[in-house]
Amino acid sequence: MNPTPTLERLRFNMIEQQIRPWDVLDNDILELLAEIHREDYVPDAHRTLSFFDMELPLLDGSVPGEIMLSPKVEARTLQDLHIQKHETVLEIGTGSGFMAALLGARAAQVLSLEINPVLAARAAETLRQNGVTNVEVRNADGAVPLPSGPSFDVIVLSGSVARIPQNLLGSLKVGGRLSAIVGEEPMMRAHFVTRTSESKWETIQPWDTMAPRLLNFPEPSRFSF
């Protein structure tokens, strides 16, 4: 079934009024956001909110932080990672599966880890229904290092952390990039880390945003004296 004109108008407005003004100017990214329909990955109860500049809950509210990031954050992250068609991607925090679909459209292969089994199963089925064949969704805790120790060209943390774990930086190939939202409320920044050699990484922090915590990643000590 073809999308209704109303949905197409909402999608156009999302791209032109939210995403493009947030310095997402890569035409390939903008075209991808027009092609991969965000509403297909949104829970039915929130489908009409798919195109709004807001985070959307993915469950019934019983699990705090289980949300879909706002469209502009997803788009800017995708743009700033500069993913190439031959690259492999690790995503931590599958959520709805929408970001995994975007990553899959840019990369050769995506492994997406989701700690919540309900969300993992739902995202895998949604991706299958939408014909995405190069994304594997795995029910796993992304804070636990992968046992085989693979390396990736790109690692995406689809949520926030207090700091980026060294084991994830070590899982980047030389030339690989990692994106994460780092900090604590009310101040977080997007971090993009590039591994420049076996022992060196370079970090830029180009924009501010906010995101719920990814589960089980280390938090700073809160002892007070």
Could you please describe the fold and organization of this structure?
This protein has helices at 5-19, 27-35, 71-81, 98-106, 117-129, 166-170, and strands spanning 56-57, 67-68, 88-92, 109-114, 135-139, 152-161, 172-184, 187-195, 201-208. With 225 residues, the chain is α/β, with parallel strands linked by helices. The model has no long low-confidence stretch (mean pLDDT 93). Helix 5 links the parallel strand 4 and strand 5. It has six helices and nine strands; from the N terminus they run ααββαβαβαββαβββ. The strands form two sheets. Strands 5-4-3-6-7-8-9 form a seven-stranded mixed β-sheet. Strands 1-2 form a two-stranded antiparallel sheet. Helix 1 (5-19) packs across helix 3. The protein has one domain (7-209): Vaccinia Virus protein VP39 (Rossmann fold), CATH 3.40.50.150.
Secondary-structure map with pairings?
Elements: H1 5-19, H2 27-35, E1 56-57, E2 67-68, H3 71-81, E3 88-92, H4 98-106, E4 109-114, H5 117-129, E5 135-139, E6 152-161, H6 166-170, E7 172-184, E8 187-195, E9 201-208
Parallel strand pairs: 3-4, 3-6, 4-5, 6-7
Antiparallel strand pairs: 1-2, 7-8, 8-9
Family: Belongs to the methyltransferase superfamily. L-isoaspartyl/D-aspartyl protein methyltransferase family.
Keywords: Methyltransferase, Transferase
GO cellular component, one term: cytoplasm
